[in-house]
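Hey team,

Filing this mostly as a record. A colleague (T.K.) asked me to run one chain through the structure pipeline before their review meeting, and I want the input and output archived in the tracker in case anyone asks later how it was produced. No errors, nothing strange. Just documentation.

Input sequence:
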Amino acid sequence: MNPRPLPFKQLTGISEKTVSIHHDKLYAGYVSKANEIADKLTKLTEEQLAAANQTYSDLRALKDGETFATNGVYLHEAYFDILGGDGKPAGKIVDRLAMDFGSFEKFQALFTACGMAARGWVVLCWDLHEQALRVYSGDAHNQGGVWGCLPLLALDVYEHAYFIDFGSDRKAYLEAWWKNLDWKKIDARFQKTA
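Output structure:
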């Protein structure tokens, strides 16, 4: 696994310093740890496999770390991949958001409220079971995700995503984040999954 480059040059209201630390250190760190864990999993001995149990074992620790690090990579990629736009909703996804949530404005209000309530992530997903758009929140990378759902829009609400620019004012960060969305990319993801 290799870190992906940023798909944009700069954002409106979110500083280059915040983006640099977030992407080049934190996200790249998840990529590095995911690779390290994958390597260690390939080197487990027969004794380590035989000692596997649900309380603690080398295998359990590595598998728990694997989901945390890998989801840290994937969620950050989903977060960065849809930034760099003008924030103006466009595409078939806007119609589907209105259908599934009552209106685009109702979706945006729900998603923003989830952004205020979550400790880690808010994700708009295409639910393969329901054949509908759903919003899920998670307090950690490996908590809150739903099997059978494909992420379309990911919002990082951990403090590292906004504290340098906004201090503890998460609401101001959310307002800036909405202004940077690239709805063409979000719509392209939607059209691939729905």
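Quick notes for T.K.: The mean pLDDT is 97. Residues 35 and 115 are 29 Å apart (CA to CA).
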